[in-house]
Amino acid sequence: MTFQSSLLKLLDERGYIHQLTDGAALDALAAKQVVPGYIGFDPTAPSLHVGSLVQIMLLRRLQQAGHKPIVLMGGGTGKVGDPSFKDEARAMLGEERIAANVASIKRIFERFLVFGDGPTDAVMLDNAEWLDGLQYIPFLRDVGQHFSVNRMLSFDSVKLRLDREQSLSFLEFNYMILQAYDFRELAQRIGCRLQLGGSDQWGNIVNGIELTRRMDGVEVFGVTTPLITTADGQKMGKTMAGAVWLHEDQLPHFDYWQYWRNVDDRDVGRFLRLFTDLPLGEIERLEALQGSEINAAKIALATAATAMCRGPEAAKLSEETARQTFEQGGAGGELPTLAVSEPINILQALTGLGFCSSNGEAKRKIAEGAVKLDGITVTDPAQSIAINGDPVKLTLGKKRHGLLVAAN
User: What is the residue-averaged pLDDT of the chain?
Assistant: First the structure.
């Protein structure tokens, strides 16, 4: 389909579109007026991770195309938990924990979006504002009547869970109704006409579109992105060392930069389109690089993505640290550090820096010859390390580097 609006053209050429409802009507609407669009984020942790970044970038593209992003924090739905394609129910979070997570996550969006009172300025809302006050019987009567249990059971997000004979609580089953109600509420409150999300949200989005049409006669739309996986089939945002958090207090700048620097060669062009603002012409030039020259494209990706999330200075320092560490054999200042006040075991050093998740994994890495201290291979898992002066450089494999420093 050839799009006329700057919004759908931008989303299409950058690779964000998987499914959309009535594309022609949405294209026409976006070509003639500002379209407010939203994505919901449930506050299950103090930070979002890279797995949520494509959705954040989707809101950024919405604003870049002259439309209004709505960030919906799930202070209400977070008390239920989205069961979509999950094997089991999420742990129940208390209200204080949810409120703390919401406050923490808000900081992330200010780096990607411009907030304010203008027609295309982003706004942030919390669905607890309307969900917490719902009365059960009136809600069942007014909203529940528009949902067919037969149809709800047919959605893949529910069907796959039941096919595997995994428990789906009545609480979780209600999640799709609450999300549909969010769309209708936003349409009423601030004229929201578009919900965006990952492909796993398609059923929930369609529910919201149908509910809004049935209750209010308003036409609204949905767009989903493809499931973003790496070239080797892994989900975005996960590594052997754990989640790639967007907050610097949960993942150092250098580790964030390194995540992007280490992507598979096959992912470089796609990730440059999705996760940076580099012009498409420049991206085409970078992704055409061959052999060792592709490393220049990876560095461009890492620096641009880090600058957007962590700031230009963090990106610059991380790139310089990498240059000193890998090209000059030194130890750049942005390497992750572990302060040591007394001699520690090599296993403690590996887990303390976050290079290994357990002593068992650390022992395996040592047995493989993958661990070095100041360039010397470690062979004894009982080796003790004392820091009496200069920092000691600890290396795991070719790409993980950290410093052991004396505690003040």
Answer: 87
Provide the 3-class DSSP secondary structure of residue 326: helix
CA nearest neighbour of 381 among 348, 352, 404, 357: 348
- Model confidence at 325, pLDDT cuts 50, 70, 90, reads confident
CA distances from residue 29 to 20, 210, 246 in whole angstroms, order as listed: 14, 18, 33
Instruction: Give residue 329's pLDDT band: very low, low, confident or very high (50, 70, 90).
Output: low
Is 259 annotated to bind a ligand? Reply is no
Is 38 annotated in a binding site? The answer is yes
CA distance linking residue 303 with residue 325, whole number of Å = 16
For residue 238, say whether it is annotated as part of any ligand binding site.
yes
Q: What is the pLDDT of residues 95-108, one digit of tens each?
A: 888 888 888 898 89
Provide the CA 230 distance to its chain's centre, in angstroms: 14
- Known binding residue 16? Answer is no
| Residue 85: per-residue pLDDT | 46
Does residue 91 have a pLDDT over 70? Answer: no
Q: Identify the structural domains of the chain with CATH numbers, from first to last.
A: 6-225 (3.40.50.620), 252-327 (1.10.240.10), 337-406 (3.10.290.10)
Q: What is the pLDDT of residues 22-73, one digit of tens each?
A: 999 999 999 999 999 999 998 888 889 999 999 999 999 999 999 999 999 9
Residue 208 region by backbone torsions, left for phi larger than 0, else alpha for psi between -120 and 50, else beta: alpha
Give Cα 93 distance to the centre of its chain.
Answer: 20
Are 402 and 337 spatial neighbours (Cβ–Cβ below 8 Å)? yes
Listed range (104-118, 173-187, 231-245) with the worst mean pLDDT: 231-245
Whether residue 104 contacts residue 46, with contact meaning beta carbons closer than 8 Å, is answered with yes
Distance of CA 325 to the CA centre of its chain: 28
Can you tell me which residue has the tokens 């973003």?
228
Q: Which pTM value belongs to this model?
A: 0.79
- CA nearest to 134, candidates 94, 80, 86, 65: 80
d(CA 286, CA 258): 18
Structure tokens belonging to residue 339: 């302060």
Q: CA 223, CA 62: separation in Å to the nearest integer?
A: 12
Q: How many CB atoms are located within 10 Å of the residue 182 CB?
A: 25
**Contact by Cβ (8 Å): 182, 155:** no
CA atoms within 13 A on the CB side of 101: 21
All residues at 6 or more sequence positions from 121 whose CB lies less than 8 Å from its CB, including other chains: 68, 114, 115
